[in-house]
Amino acid sequence: MMLDIVDKIGIFELLSLALNILLGSGLFVTLITLQSVRKEAGGKAQKAVAEARTDEIQNVEAAIKIWRGIAQDMAEKYDQVAAQVERLSKEVKRLNSINNRIVKLLDKITAENIEIMVDAIKQTIHENES
């Protein structure tokens, strides 16, 4: 029976010694702290990745706004140029028509009708100016 008590005391001492080493040396606390620090570092890393993605998205959106503005400006300028080309095309057609009439009248000029033809040419020019 005494051996049983000694064995029990030995077991309790060993258990006490193990717990003192584990808890007294700070190993247990250190392990728990390390686990907490690791979780915190993981959370910060995930937050940094999320912020980087957000920054990237914001940069892309800013670039899109810039390009959209450029495209709108180009569209407005294109419309202005297209309208100007249309006006110039009409003017060129009108001037070609006048030139063709003048050439026809010039072909009809003779020594006898030169004054009449010059007056006709002047009249053609003045009619088409207004």
In short:
This protein is an all-alpha fold. The chain has three helices and no strands. 0% of the residues are buried.
What is the averaged pLDDT score?
A: 81
What order do the SSEs take from the amino end to the carboxyl end, as H and E? HHH
- The general outline is rod-shaped
Distance between the termini: 137 Å
Q: How many runs of DSSP E, i.e. beta strands?
A: 0
- What can be said about the biggest beta sheet? none
Helical content band:
over 70%
Classification by helices and strands: mainly alpha
Question: Total domains, how many?
Answer: 1
Radius of gyration, in angstroms, nearest whole number: 50 Å
Beta-strand share of residues: under 5%
Distinct helical segment count: 3
| Uncertain spans | none
Q: Topology, pairings included?
A:
Layout: H1 2-24, H2 27-107, H3 114-129
Helix pairs in contact: 2-3
Explain this structure to me?
The protein is an all-alpha fold and 130 residues long. The protein has one domain. It has helices at residues 2-24, 27-107, 114-129. The chain starts with a helix and ends with a helix.
Protein traits:
single chain; mainly alpha; 3 helices; 130 residues
